[in-house]
């Protein structure tokens, strides 16, 4: 028999409900779900329930905020711009060059003094401004398989790397715009002893990149310990002075797993950014890592930023449990906590003033 | 040649050669081509499924939009890979295709079952077994008992001697009574040698119409009517076997034609969605435009922004580049249009509709059926109804007729059931006895003038003819004692009125025994069987509003008996007889009875001869048969003499008044549209409390029009203006949303009848002016009664209201075929599974067994569906706005380079996985106010009236909320990233960390926002809400924990894990989530309208108890379950109450035994010391003081009501005086 139940109306893929056929002549199940009587918690947000929550939030947030603010304030941070835009700037001469491939290295030295000693480990960052590392075409211009040591990708870089995929038929390793524009200034820090001698401060380049990046995501091609051989047949990025296998003399920090390179490859979120450059380890508990006094920053100035009105700076900073200096979190927490507390008070007043009236309004009918 | 000639002549008819035998000239026989008997309800075949289905899916605007986005992504260099939009699209398309494919497979299966069914066909004198699909038009088919007919057949021969057969059409129109069909008259006995052609009309869907003519070789012609046609889908009953010739086959059968496309109704919510969509499309385009413009402004600055980043930007083809940039931005922001919303809405509607059919409150034990959902698209419309158009008979009333009294020749007779059988007729007005002749004539008329069949007693398989006899005797013996012998006798008729009349006549001593080969047998008071030959039946139709039979008695008199509505009988009888009866009829009508007048006419032999030929001629005609028949009918049914009138009571439906009250309390206007008389309808309206004592009735009927004695139209104009003045201008302005509870002074009821309505609608002059006046009056009246309506007029009224200003949502409810037009016309059509067949149910959007179910369907289900879907829609727009806004803002920081903020996986999964399930679960199980409260307090329905939750106000609120949160997400993280060294090892975060933090905040906020809105936390909600968040976390770990071999970019490698290792990231995430939700929490606390409002109104429904502890007078109302969430802080002494009470109800006498169990949940809420929700109103009763037990605050009242109809009701209730008392 041609049952009417299958006669679904199918306009535009609309759903027809062949309910009738199955339900007919059958008493619906008396289950809580089908009768929409599932046991349920029915919370109602009222001043009564929210009040304590507001107070609690206020009471928790304000201390956290104060803690954050104090922590942030306790962080020592020193920033020095060495772009050299002014004629008086020590790096002015170096900055005049727009070219990437200056064979003659240009160096300049900046003197500065620290008013307060930096007690704990000091992290040295380089900062760039007006550099759109988050530009879409820039961000995608890399080949993660190549960086992961894939031989095939080494020889045939991804299309995404164009136009930095090949240099006259030879594949570029590492390919892409990010790698090509790698920051290549060298920064050295000297402590100027009150007696006039310059003491070079040892800068550690270990652990500046994410551990997982250094150990998993980035790998040198093949298992060849001889990097020169491994990168045979590839070309260096156009703007680089040395090929990738000569980034460092340390075998553990050379090639794709060079930490400076890895740090650079993690594209920044905003056009003004900083990247970790070196770490100054605290030697012992007795002396501060960077004592008060005069310092000299020696820059091997290679990275041209004038063309896009960029700025370069060096930041020396200590680090707390919340990271670098950032008063925002502390202020935000204090503000939100205060707002919550204030709202709690307002609600309390409302509750007391109008709540009782509300109650009495309910009773007589 | 004659045959083919005939065929070409009449294109609107078809010629069928019975048994494929040529009629006259074998040479020129060209077998006509008809479609085969294959039923194809499926849409696709294996071959065309893919293209056809895809084509149909891409016709939908949303799918098409995403196809375009996908294509743009493929062609143009866009920020996101085609996968991000291709995957969801593919998913949606695949799921839909699978679903449709499965449904089509089911249809194929069902088709095959029908098509491969083996039937017996007579072919060249041999019986052949054939598959049903191979039947050709013209085949002679044999059908045996209990088989269904494989195609539409003209009955040629039956195994029954009286050349009839019985069928049931239950699967066609739901009428389960046996219908008699007749063989073609004067049929040759030998079907093998039958040489005949049938000429009949082209296939048409009307089940009850068929016109044809059969030419036999002998050259006589026989007319064919619906009584000769056996429809495919009907089942042969009580007949051993029949032979019939196939006339319509396959997709041309009436059944197949009937199942083709009803027009699809679309809900108002969809219109809102489209409007919102337009807004978001504008936002999308303007965002893309802003970004494109800014990009070029920025790039044209003399400082070339960043040498190392710019790659080969060529400035030729600038405009093309700009255009592709624009497209890229569109693609980047396209997620703002929620594609998944369409899928979710569909799923919500589809799954949500199951709750209606699952609801056991809709289950009617009498018919063993629950509610039926034919359209799930309109669920939310049930919560938006403003006008309810209801049929009277069978909807407001039970359509369960009982003969109450009759009036014969001006004297009134009432039947007394408990007086022994001797005194059968009691004359109310003492009058000279001996008018027995008139009495008997009247009773004979009742016995003869009908189309009732005698139901066969169970267990007897053979024909109907032999059924009566002894059986009846037995019944008659008990007749005096038994008031309802109908159960034993069993009559079947298409209308219950007829059965009531036949049963009524039986009580008076005239018993209809049944039909036997065209003669009707009646047993009179002296237990003699009278036989009448049935000559003609002039069928009932709603336009004539009467039916007649022509019979010939044994003595040779030919008589015509006619019964019908007074308005259609009075003009056709001798006038002096009318006055005596009119009074009775009107009085009966006022009491709410259905009245019918009975008239008769003696036909002289020559008169009859004339009538006979005219009737036959009219029946033979192929064209305009209806009109011709009508003409003859009118001619015959004239100049009759009135014998009497009957009054039949039609009881109100269960809880009709309460339902109507609830609907009115919910702000709906109830209009009663009925074909019945004004007086009857009016009294029903009073009984249903649609009109109340204080209601001022404005009448616009033929009677009031004729009062002035002037031109009808002038009078109409005058009345309309007058009423308009009274009801519209002088009435106090009704403020929107103000409750009209109780009877305010300006309470009007409007009554109009069919004739006047057509005058209003079709009047030549100022038709529009009348119409608007009429509409304005009606809209200001509490209830409107339209009586004497033709089916089409009902639809006209619905349409009038539907298209009036503000286009209110209309609902029609009815049970009969005459309601189909209005059911189809209204926004929502509800069918009642009543006694008048299944036509209304078949055409309805929802079908319920009883009128009382309407209350729950609208107030509870409708309200909830509306709130659910409205919230769903708003939420979808909101969550996509705050999803995309950060991405838009990011463009300002990345040189307008279309850099996506989030990873592609997040972009893709956001709507599919991370945030879709909670809202779907919410939209299925949420009850912001529990069902009981909704039912208890009809006024809550007004809260959502007029699309309240999807208007621009709420929409802008949600949009602002989205914007606020989007801004917060982005800038919160932006400030955090002022120093990207966020880990305690000094390492820095990059752009993907930025996006991941924003996205995490987003997912959590959006989900928690929904959690805040959830008022009804079932385990489902807990599962999906916390489950989604857990899934997001798990997925992020997983996605960032593996170097994916198929991806060239490992952007998210350990980004999420690193994020979690940073305290600052945790802190900012927590901060932003709380800050985003803060205004929402505040608003919910401060704006308590919904909460308090509902609660305060609820309090007005409390009982006043009278007993030792709480004096209460119990005006309580009950339904199946009362649930109280009764919460307060006071501590009460333990108390015990116990009570049983017996009370009688005027309408439903029943005993209640109440056992109270009160459960109160102590609850720490100082704002609302107690909330209670309680449901139901049925009977009003006053209870004596009762006892109940409670222990401090956890006490439970359980009322156990034991009804006479057997079902138990448990009521849990609480009182409110409790609070009052302790607070004193």
TrEMBL record, chain A:
Q: Name one Pfam family in it.
A: CDC50
* Bilayer topology term: Multi-pass membrane protein
Q: Where are the transmembrane segments?
A: 44-70, 328-350
Kindly state one GO CC term assigned in the UniProt record. transport vesicle membrane
Q: Mind listing the UniProt keywords for this protein, alphabetically?
A: Cell membrane, Cytoplasmic vesicle, Disulfide bond, Glycoprotein, Golgi apparatus, Lipid transport, Membrane, Transmembrane, Transmembrane helix, Transport
Where found in the cell?
Apical cell membrane; Cytoplasmic vesicle, Secretory vesicle membrane; Golgi apparatus; Membrane
Name the GO terms of the biological process aspect: phospholipid translocation
Q: Which InterPro entries match?
A: CDC50/LEM3_fam (IPR005045)
- Which PANTHER family did the record assign? CELL CYCLE CONTROL PROTEIN 50 (PTHR10926), CELL CYCLE CONTROL PROTEIN 50A (PTHR10926:SF17)
| Family of this protein | Belongs to the CDC50/LEM3 family.
Question: Could you identify this protein by its name?
Answer: Cell cycle control protein
**What organism does the record attribute this protein to?**
Esox lucius (Northern pike)
From TrEMBL, chain B:
Q: Which residues form the P-type ATPase A domain?
A: 118-181
Membrane-crossing segments per the record: 58-76, 275-298, 326-345, 955-977, 992-1012, 1024-1047, 1053-1078
Any single Gene Ontology cellular-component annotation: early endosome
Q: Which domain of life is it from?
A: Eukaryota
Q: How does it sit in the membrane?
A: Multi-pass membrane protein
Point to the regions of Basic residues compositional bias: 1117-1129, 1149-1161
Q: What class of enzyme is it?
A: translocase
User: What positions does the domain P-type ATPase N-terminal occupy?
Assistant: 31-85
What UniProt keywords apply to this chain's record, in alphabetical order?
A: ATP-binding, Cell membrane, Endoplasmic reticulum, Endosome, Lipid transport, Magnesium, Membrane, Metal-binding, Nucleotide-binding, Phosphoprotein, Translocase, Transmembrane, Transmembrane helix, Transport
Q: Where does Mg(2+) bind?
A: 391, 393, 815, 819
Q: Where is the composition biased (Basic and acidic residues)?
A: 1138-1148
- Region named Disordered: 1117-1162
Q: What's a Pfam family in this record?
A: E1-E2_ATPase
- What residues make up the catalytic site? 391 (4-aspartylphosphate intermediate)
Family classification: Belongs to the cation transport ATPase (P-type) (TC 3.A.3) family. Type IV subfamily.
Q: What is this protein called?
A: Phospholipid-transporting ATPase
Organism field: Esox lucius (Northern pike)
Taxonomic lineage is: Eukaryota, Metazoa, Chordata, Craniata, Vertebrata
């Amino acid at each position: 028999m041609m049952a009417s139940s299958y006669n679904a109306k199918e306009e535009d893929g609309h759903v027809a409900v062949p309910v009738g056929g199955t339900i007919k002549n059958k008493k619906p199940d008396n289950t809580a779900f089908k009768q929409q009587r599932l046991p349920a918690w029915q919370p109602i947000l009222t001043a009564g329930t929210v009040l304590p929550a507001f107070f609690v939030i206020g009471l928790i947030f304000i201390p956290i905020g104060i803690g954050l603010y104090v922590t942030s304030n306790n962080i020592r941070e020193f920033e020095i711009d060495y772009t050299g835009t002014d004629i008086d700037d020590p790096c002015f001469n170096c900055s005049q060059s727009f070219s990437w491939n200056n064979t003659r290295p240009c160096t300049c030295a900046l003197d500065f003094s620290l008013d307060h000693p930096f007690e704990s480990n000091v992290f040295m960052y380089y900062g760039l401004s007006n550099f759109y590392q988050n530009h879409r075409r820039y961000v995608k211009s890399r080949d993660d398989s190549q960086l992961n040591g894939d031989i095939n990708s080494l020889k045939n870089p991804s299309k995404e790397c164009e136009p930095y995929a090949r240099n006259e038929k030879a594949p570029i390793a590492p390919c892409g715009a990010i790698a090509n524009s790698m920051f290549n200034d060298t920064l050295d820090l000297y402590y100027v002893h009150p007696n006039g001698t310059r003491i070079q401060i040892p800068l550690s380049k270990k652990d500046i990149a994410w551990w997982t990046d250094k150990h998993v995501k980035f790998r040198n091609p093949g298992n060849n310990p001889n990097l020169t051989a491994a990168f045979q047949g590839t070309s260096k990025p156009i703007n680089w002075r040395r090929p990738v296998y000569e980034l460092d003399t340390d075998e553990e920090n050379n090639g794709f797993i060079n930490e400076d390179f890895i740090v650079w490859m993690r594209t920044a979120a905003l056009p003004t950014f900083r990247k970790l450059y070196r770490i100054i380890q605290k030697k012992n508990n007795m002396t501060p890592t960077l004592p008060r006094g005069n310092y000299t920053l020696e820059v091997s100035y290679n990275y041209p930023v004038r063309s896009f009105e960029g700025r370069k700076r060096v930041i020396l900073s200590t680090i707390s449990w919340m990271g670098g200096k950032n008063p925002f979190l502390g202020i935000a927490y204090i503000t939100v906590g205060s707002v919550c507390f204030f709202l709690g008070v307002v609600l309390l007043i409302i509750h007391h003033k109008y709540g009782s009236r509300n109650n009495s309004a309910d009773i007589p009918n | 040649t004659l045959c083919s000639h005939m065929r070409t002549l009449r294109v609107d008819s078809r010629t069928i050669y019975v048994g494929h035998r040529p009629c006259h000239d074998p040479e020129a026989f060209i077998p006509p081509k008809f479609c085969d008997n294959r039923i194809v309800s499926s849409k696709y075949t294996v071959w065309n499924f893919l293209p056809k289905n895809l084509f149909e899916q891409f016709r939908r605007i949303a799918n098409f939009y995403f196809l375009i986005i996908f294509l743009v992504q493929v062609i143009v260099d866009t920020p996101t890979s085609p996968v991000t939009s291709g995957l969801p699209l593919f998913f949606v398309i695949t799921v839909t295709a699978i679903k449709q494919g499965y449904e089509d497979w089911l249809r194929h299966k069902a088709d095959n079952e029908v098509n491969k069914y083996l039937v017996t066909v007579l072919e060249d004198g041999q019986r052949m077994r054939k598959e049903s699909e191979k039947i050709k038009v013209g085949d002679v088919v044999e059908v045996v008992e209990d088989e269904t007919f494989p195609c539409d057949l003209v009955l040629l021969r039956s195994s029954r001697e009286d050349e009839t057969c019985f069928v049931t059409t239950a699967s066609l129109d739901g009428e389960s009574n046996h219908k008699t069909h007749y063989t073609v008259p004067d049929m040759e006995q030998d079907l093998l040698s039958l040489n005949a052609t049938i000429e009949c009309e082209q296939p048409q869907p009307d089940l009850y119409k068929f016109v044809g003519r059969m030419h036999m070789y002998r050259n006589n012609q026989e007319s064919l009517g619906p009584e000769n046609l056996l429809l495919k889908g009907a089942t042969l009953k009580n007949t051993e076997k029949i032979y019939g010739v196939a006339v319509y086959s396959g997709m041309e059968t009436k059944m197949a034609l009937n199942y083709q496309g009803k027009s699809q109704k679309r809900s108002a919510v969809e219109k809102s969605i489209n409007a919102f969509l337009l807004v978001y499309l504008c936002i999308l385009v303007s965002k893309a435009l802003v970004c494109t413009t800014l990009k070029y402004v920025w790039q044209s600055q003399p400082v070339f922004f960043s040498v190392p980043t710019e790659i080969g930007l060529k400035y030729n083809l600038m405009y093309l580049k700009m255009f592709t940039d624009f497209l890229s931005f569109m693609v980047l922001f396209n997620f703002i249009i929620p594609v998944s919303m369409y899928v979710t809405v569909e799923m919500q509607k589809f799954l949500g509709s199951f709750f209606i059919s699952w609801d056991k409150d809709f289950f009617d034990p009498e018919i063993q059926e629950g509610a039926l959902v034919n359209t799930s698209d309109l669920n939310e419309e049930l919560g938006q109804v403003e006008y309810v158009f209801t049929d009277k008979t069978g909807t407001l009333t039970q359509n369960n007729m009982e003969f109450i009294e009759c009036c014969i020749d001006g004297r009134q007779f009432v039947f007394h059931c408990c007086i022994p059988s001797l005194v059968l007729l009691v004359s109310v007005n003492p009058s000279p006895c001996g008018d027995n002749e008139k009495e008997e004539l009247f009773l004979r008329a009742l016995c003869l003038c009908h189309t009732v069949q005698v139901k066969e007693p169970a267990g007897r398989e053979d024909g109907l003819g032999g059924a009566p006899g002894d059986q009846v005797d037995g019944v008659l013996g008990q007749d005096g004692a038994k008031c309802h012998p109908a159960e034993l006798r069993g009559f079947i008729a298409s209308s219950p009125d007829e059965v009531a009349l036949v049963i009524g006549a039986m009580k008076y001593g005239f018993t209809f025994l049944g039909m036997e080969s065209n003669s009707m047998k009646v047993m009179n008071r002296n237990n003699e069987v009278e036989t009448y030959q049935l000559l003609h039946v002039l069928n009932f139709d709603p336009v004539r509003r009467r039916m007649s039979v022509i019979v010939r008695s044994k003595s040779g008199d030919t008589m015509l008996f006619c019964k019908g509505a007074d308005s259609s009988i009075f003009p056709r009888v001798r006038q002096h007889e009318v006055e005596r009866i009119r009074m009775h009829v009107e009085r009966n009508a006022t009491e709410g009875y259905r009245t019918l007048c009975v008239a008769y006419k003696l036909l002289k032999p020559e008169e009859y001869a004339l009538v006979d030929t005219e009737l036959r001629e009219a029946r033979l005609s192929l064209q305009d048969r209806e009109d011709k028949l009508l003409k003859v009918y009118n001619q015959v049914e004239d100049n009759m003499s009135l014998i009497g009138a009957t009054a039949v009571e039609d009881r109100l439906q269960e809880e009709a008044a309460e339902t109507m009250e609830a609907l009115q309390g919910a702000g709906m206007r109830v209009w009663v549209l009925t074909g019945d008389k004004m007086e009857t309808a009016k009294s029903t309206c009073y009984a249903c409390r649609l009109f109340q004592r204080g209601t001022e009735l404005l009448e616009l009927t033929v009677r009031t029009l004729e009062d002035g004695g002037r031109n009808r139209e002038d009078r109409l104009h005058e009345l309309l203006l007058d009423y308009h003045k009274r009801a519209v201008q002088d009435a106090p302005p009704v403020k929107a949303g103000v409750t009209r509870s109780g009877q305010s002074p300006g309470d009007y009821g409007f009554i109009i009848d069919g004739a006047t309505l057509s005058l209003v609608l079709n009047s030549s002059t100022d038709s529009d002016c009348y119409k608007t006046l009429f509409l304005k009056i009606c809209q200001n009246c509490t209830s409107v009664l339209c009586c004497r309506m033709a089916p089409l007029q009902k639809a006209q009224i619905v349409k009038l209201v539907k298209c009036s200003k503000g286009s209110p949502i209309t609902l029609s409810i009815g049970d009969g075929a005459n309601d189909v037009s209005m059911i189809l016309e209204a926004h929502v059509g509800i069918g009642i599974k009543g006694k008048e067949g299944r036509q209304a149910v078949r055409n309805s959007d929802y079908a319920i067994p009883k009128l009382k179910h309407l209350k729950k369907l609208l107030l509870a289900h409708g309200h909830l569906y509306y709130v659910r879907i409205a919230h769903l829609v708003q939420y979808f727009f909101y969550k996509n706005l705050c999803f995309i806004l950060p991405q838009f803002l990011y463009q300002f920081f990345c040189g307008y380079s279309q850099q996506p903020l989030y990873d592609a996986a997040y972009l893709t999964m956001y709507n599919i996985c991370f945030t879709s399930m909670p809202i779907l679960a919410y939209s299925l199980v949420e009850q912001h106010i529990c069902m009981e409260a909704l039912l208890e307090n009809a006024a809550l329905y007004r809260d959502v009236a007029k699309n309240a939750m999807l208007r621009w106000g709420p929409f802008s609120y949600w949009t602002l909320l989205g914007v606020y949160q989007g801004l917060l997400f982005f800038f919160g993280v932006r400030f955090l990233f002022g120093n990207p060294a966020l880990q305690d090892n000094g390492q820095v975060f990059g752009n993907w960390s930025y996006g991941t933090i924003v996205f995490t905040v987003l997912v959590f906020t959006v989900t928690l926002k929904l959690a805040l809105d959830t008022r009804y936390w079932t385990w489902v909600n807990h599962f999906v809400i916390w489950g989604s968040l857990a899934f997001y976390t798990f997925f992020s770990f997983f996605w960032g924990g593996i170097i994916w071999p198929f991806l060239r970019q490992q952007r998210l490698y350990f980004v999420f894990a690193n994020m979690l290792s940073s305290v600052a990231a945790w802190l900012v995430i927590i901060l932003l989530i709380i800050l985003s939700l803060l205004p929402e929490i505040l608003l919910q606390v401060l704006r308590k309208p919904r909460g308090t409002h509902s609660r305060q109104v609820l309090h007005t429904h409390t009982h006043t108890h009278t007993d030792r502890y709480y004096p209460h007078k119990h005006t309580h109302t009950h339904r199946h379950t009362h649930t109280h969430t009764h919460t307060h802080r006071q501590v009460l002494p333990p108390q015990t109450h116990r009570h049983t009470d017996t009370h009688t109800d005027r309408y439903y006498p029943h005993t209640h035994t109440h056992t109270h169990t009160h459960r109160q949940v102590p609850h720490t809420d100082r704002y609302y010391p107690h909330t209670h929700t309680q449901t139901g109103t049925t009977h009003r009763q006053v209870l004596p003081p009762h006892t109940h037990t409670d222990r401090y605050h956890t006490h439970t009242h359980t009322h156990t009501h034991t009804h006479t109809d057997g079902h138990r009701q448990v009521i849990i209730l609480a009182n409110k005086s409790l609070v009052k008392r302790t607070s004193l």
